Batch of 2 targets.
Target 1
Amino acid sequence: MFKKITLLLILLLAAALLLSGCGDTDPAEDAAEALSPRHGGVLRNAYYAPTNLDPAFLGTIPDDHIGRQWSDFLVYIDEENQPDINRSVAEHWESDDTAKVWTFKLREGILFHDGKEMTSIDVKFTFDRLRDPDVGAATVGLYENIEEITAPDEYTVVFRLAESNVDFLLDLGDYHALIMDADNENFATNWNGTGPFMIERYEPEDRIIFTRNPNYWMTDDDGYPLPYLDGLEFIFLSDSSAQVEALRGGQVDYLLYLPTEFVPLLEEDPDFVVYQKPSNLSYVLRMRSDRAPADDVRVRQALKAGTDRAAILEAAVGGLGTTGRDTPIGPAYGDFYLDVPEPERDVERAKELLAEAGYPDGLDIVLTTQEVSPVPAIATIWQEQMKEIGVNVEIQLVPSEVYYGADDMWLEADFAITDWAPRPSPQPYLAQAYMCDAPWNESHWCDPELDELARAAGSELDYEERVRLYHEIQEVFIERGPVIIPFFVNNLWGAHVSLKNLQPTSAVGTSLDLRTVYFEQ
Amino acid sequence: MALYLLRRLGFIFLTLLLASIIIFSITQFLPGDVAQMVLGQFATEVAIENLREELGLNLPLHIQYLNWAAGFITGDWGDSLVSRMPVQPMVMQRLGNSAMLAGVAIMIYVPLGIALGVIAALKRDRYPDQAITAVSMAFVGLPEFVTGLLLIAIFAIGLGWLPANSSIDPGSNFVQAFPYLILPAITVSLTGLGYIARMTRSGTIDVLDTDYIRAAELKGLPAAQVLLRHVLRNALLPTVTVVAMGIGWLLGGLIVTETVFGYPGLGRLLVYGIQRRDLPLIQAGSMIVVAVYSLSNLAADIIYGLLNPRIRLGR
């Protein structure tokens, strides 16, 4: 409480200072160079090294974190997973009644870092490249539904889809979809984007240094140019304790994807603030439903009934999240989320179900577990819980590279825990992992009713009706679905107190918007 | 002597050649390939095939190796397969950083280790000897991430005297880098100290037991003179070898320390290269480490000869 009051006071004071500071001069009258007291400072961050900086092949968290600093999105997805036109390079968008033809009007005068103006040619080029099977980006599947992209004039782009897609704006906000310069000939080493920061120097496995883009198109509410920061410096540290020590030692100003075990340490230190926001990042314990034993719905129900979700949440990530309901649609999706009470653990019921399924003496299973925090912790606690219902869980620990490696262990194993990153809407989870012919249907579950509901939800234009469909989908999952989702973990950031205006997001943790972040003088 | 040197340098060249072939072969057996690593788990087959073609990974293995070797000898070390940037400046900059750290560490642990070893030998089997042995061995046994994090907790976070993180700016010179080098250098020194102290102790004890030392003492030379002129000169021979071996370790093997402190040294770069199957980077980095090992061994042999004329080489 005290903290909140102090924060409020600081904010009021800052506001008062700002108001008194710019009361007598109108910033709009000043030249473009006029900067506010918020301007200045270099933001430093420590995280793992990136793998690829070519937007079409971004794959890791650091890849994404770097990408969104030096270019922009046609459609920017905000902190609540909604399209935000004010932060998009499109200034207007509309679709026809069938959600098949989408027309975008671009802002005029947006410049690439090399001074060239961004036009519809570049936008068309960007998405053509991302859907080109010969380029082979990870987005080819996502944009398969695009039939044709046209650029009728310099500032208009039209997307024609084969089938209706009400979530098309969200698809366009995919993290690979950074606006590219159509004249660029080498995407691996030429980072000519339109973004708020320009890459000044990239030292592989050491750091990447950005400077402020003085021609950036966005302004703040007072008309001052964004971004506020003079530059960014991302230092690559391959050890999470080293990252945290760098923050505590003052060598960096903020950390993203702060590991949960460091949260208490930073929270008790008055120099730092831990920001958190519920996300849909989850560790999905999926049960292979096309062969014994989990092909029997009673086995799946028994394992669910024997699981104590709150205990797993507490022990695995220190309670920094919300318990799941065994459906991939979490509370981060607002209305779409079906808010039912957390299922009570019922050991007797679980035993009964197992007996009915033909396992009165219990069951031996192997749980394939990635060696990446907090998956082994989840597996160990669940193993204990299962013991009480007579299920003997053998934990098979494998490195992540092997789990997702050439043999596709994650798609093959009978029982396994897969980490699923946040998506801007529930639909990608259904299309990618749960519909019968989903490419990553890791649980090999095929439920005609779910397929029908999911298809309907994906093309339903009426919001209320979509909400109803998603709720019904969650009921199916709760009743007979192939997954146990113990919890959704919060996105976590650690930052120095002098860093202001951080807006925690429930999308991927990298999408924290650095354009409006500033240091308190 | 010149002939001897020439022969030794020839052997070093052969060592490098052999090492490059071995490293190249090993990387072929690593699971996964660089195209998959660079494009990520979800890239399509087409994209991976395109990249393999572009990077020349579809050529026969011996052609790939010869291409690399021809380039390396003529000074073109190739581009990193991951970042597509030239490997040479990357490796050389890291070598410079590693050399700075190695220099500071050697300045700390070699004199200290020798001093402790001599004291232990002089007070053999008495309290100071036992204390020195126990403490230095304990530090040898402690992993660097433990000593490193302890030092950070005490001197950086607790007392605030030194930076907690040593990710120095690229191109920093020694003066700029110095404050960032102290904690990692101490961490490394605590590991290296024990070896030097042990070697010096046993070398000194051996020499102290010889007749010529007894003779020197009996003819009435001051104890300090006996120690410095007669004991150390002979006792330090094995220590020289340990120091020389240590240089190779300091330049390419400090992966844990570099990771804990975020110090951009050569060891970390090599691990990064290996994780991503970045062949030109792995090759160039390991060639440098092998060369440093070989050259410091050569230097050790030469110093050996200077200290001990009986085994002076080349005759």
Target 2
Amino acid sequence: MEKLKSLFKKIKWKYAVNYVAIGAIALVLTALTMSGGIKQSDLFLLEKITMNIILAVSLSLVVGFLGELSLGHAGFMCVGAYFGGITSMLLESSGIMAGDGVLSFVISMVVGAAVAGVCGFIIGLPALRLRGDYLAIVTLAFGEIVKTIFQNVTFEIGGKTVGGPIGIRTPRFDKQYFFIIGFVLVLIAIAVIQNLIRSKHGRAITAIRDNEIAAKATGINVTKYKLCGFIVSAVFAGIAGVMYSFANSNVTASVFDYNKSIEILVMVVLGGMGNISGAIISATFITFLDVRLQSVLTGDLAVLNDMIYALVLILVVIYNNAPALRPFREKYNARKLLSRFFGFFRNKHGYADDEGKWDRVPTKIDMDELLSVDVIVNESVQKPDKEEKK
Amino acid sequence: MDFLITLVNGLSLGGIYAMIALGYTMVYGIAKMLNFAHGDIIMVGGYAILVFLSVNPILAIVFSVLFCIGLGIAVEKAAYKPLRGASPLAVLITAIGVSYFLQSLAQIIFGASPKYVIIADLGSLVIGEVSISYGTIITLACSIVIMIALTLFVKLTKTGRAMIAVSEDKDAARLMGVNIDHIIMITFAIGSALASLAGLFSLLRVPTIMPTYGALPGIKAFTAAVIGGIGSIPGAMLGGILLGVVECVCNSIPTVAPYTMAIEFAILIVILLVKPTGILGKKRREKV
Amino acid sequence: MKTTFKKVLCLVLTLALMVPVLAACKSDELEVPSFSDSTIKIGLTGPLTGGTAVYGTAVYNSAKLAVSEINEAGGLDGIMFSLEMIDDQHKPELVANSYATLLEKGMQISLGTVTTAPGLEFKELSYEDNVFFLTPSATGDAIPEYANGFQMCFADSNQGTASAVYFNENYQGKKVGAFYKSDDEYSTGILAKFEESLDDSFGSIVKASFKGEESDFNQQVQALKDCDIIFMPIYYTPASQFMTAGKSVIKANAVYFGCDGLDGVDAIDGFDINSVPQEVSYLSHFNSNATTGAAADFIKKYNETFDSEKEPLNQFGAAAYDCVYAIFEALKAAKAEGKNIDGSTSASEMCEILKAQFTGNFEYHGITGKPEADGKSSISWTENGFVNKEAVKYIVKEAN
């Protein structure tokens, strides 16, 4: 008993809370499905939530921790969905195994994730040279290029031509149980990314975000860590893509446009930059809002869907980030309220160890602004000098 | 001969992109935010013209410009100003929110179906086999005039210099007595006025408007602004023209046409890899 | 004090923003009951927002019109019909949720989806649960793949072949061009079949394309300026933009030849079709400007009930109107055969009843297709779920 107690004390609850919460939810839901107590629409919602959590957490690595703005996350997802889908189709058409089984999913996932990882590497390369918004548009460009290519290329599978605008018809996993796979993958994604961030490598990544030059000066291999961040993020986006191909019976490239990338970015930013639990919560919240608004606002009311979504977005972002509202936020802080209820989870040092104050994280973009000093003398500065000489 | 026609077409399209990109680059250079709602201001401008078109075209255009300026300032005050000093990404997200908001508002008011807004049939100038519509000439001339005027405004007037100061260093500018809120408001007013003019010129070229109209030009203008170098006024012009010509050349070759967007973006990536801050962008060195 | 003022101001501003929204949302007079146990529940999904919303709105309005008419006339021996439509924004990923939600609300019969891409997802889901659907406008060849799926519109390959046959018969020796949307399955599907069935004597056809939400076709018209006939398997909005751009570039005696998507081109607000010098015609099942027969009555009723400037009618709507009536007639016939049909019949039972009707010798007389002596067209369905009716070549306007 004593041992168990000390073990309990040793666990850093701040980190474990994600696993425990998600694991518990998954178990309860599995039990509910087994007993038939869960509706089909809820199952679809769960599939979507798990997919979006993986996407948000993986994008959070690049945007929140590496400090690079990426607008092409859907491109990696597209690569994963297509390559994963094609793999499962090939497996099925060649008669090796059923395309919609767990084994087929695992093989497709490996293929999809690997190809997405390669794409992540390719996109990581310009990231070494470009910064801020210039990199953002390169990622956006990547996403659109991938989409355009898959929209036009056709493949030959099992004697049938597939692909093109109509997309590919992929085997579909049993919809009753797919969300369980989703939850397992969410746990894996969180475990990998959270541990990466807590490790030596993670600290190197955050150091690059906070000040690249200083990081370089301390001997951090910036090239390696930037590429590593992009590759890990792309691999998980690819996995989410493979999930998409198994959750739907058709994969069309037009789904993965820049609006999808922005949707994921919104989840990351709403959750708080560099905050994994936040990304999980906001991915869940936004997906829920989106799907439920769609079901509730039927017929003539459907036009209100986007409007409500937009207003919620603007208000939440302003509430979360406006400097003028800081005292108000500090007074009614969700984390504070939670910790009052669950004082149990509070560790000795409180919450502010390496997470810092996340209400205003200096991102790569404004760090540039803060630190840069123009060496090349600007015209507008030069002019008064000339006048003085006269 | 065919190529000449394609080129003229490209210049005409490029003029519109340039006009949008000028507004985009102004806002970016000074407020340091990616204004994803810029494209939707164009759409609003188009609908604003539609409202008063039956009364008088000139009145409609004036109303559209004024309405867009008002809208630009209102959006800035309501959605962007509270976030001054917060992470730039937060502003990016509210800009996206504003974009969704304007789109769905337009659908509620005007319906989802496209509207034809025929302002005037200006006819076209025929030189040999090439015919250039007067709309094209006006668009190009206006965008060049606006580019020069903006450059002069920024360089010569007090407000313009204050804008440069704000874009260089906000805090130092504040210390020197520049009213930052005021300057950013003026920037948004100029950007929105340019967007409404871009709406007018694209209506001269393609006389239709629908709620989702703004998204594509918005992205194209963002691309153009980046190719030219964000924050650079001549750069935006150059990027816009380049993009317009590339698009028309690609669309004239049937086998390449489906990949136009991919080719434009590929060119963007190549340019950025060669010149990381765009063709005419300023170099920034970092010192520790 | 100041912050309180700001907060109040924020609240007032937000409310002020909501006012036009709520004001604009007043529903039209048409009363359609929402899902309840005592009604026969019809559900569908389609784009009600986004770039393709104009098609979804027309379908929704027309289906509502049909349902309210049926209910006013007493329903199915006193049993009323109810209708619900969920927005899918033309996105396949949103269909699973819309479908499941409708089913849980009690949907018994479905009109499927409005567009093809989401329809491909819908047919798989509905097959698993054995739910009958008759789609007004998802034209993909694969839509009626399973026994539970039927189409009211012509399938893509059918339209492509029919157009090619018409070309082979009427336009021999002319130079053919095609203007299509390269990222749209409707457009590429029809074009592929069209090229396949076109006689070799036409030689190669000149092609120009666009994609996404592009609306500037000044370049594309240049590529097609030498053609005598331009085949346009696209929807009417881009077609009208193409015609505007081609006014003085395309040969004045050329012919624009489209498929069912072109219907509605003469009804766009502010677009004067007569300013286009070329001939505009299409091969379709419906003409929104019909002046005779049952179709004209429907068009009149639609324009009286809805704001035709904001929510214009097109062939999508007409097909939806026919879908509702076809289902109603089929249910009536089944009831006459002694089947037990009411609001509590399960979706699967309903599916079997309707499948038996539609694949049997059921014939429906409606507004889409070639009108016969009584002003109505005769429509039946093949074993595979494809529609069997006659297409008509409508000439929207002659060459000037």
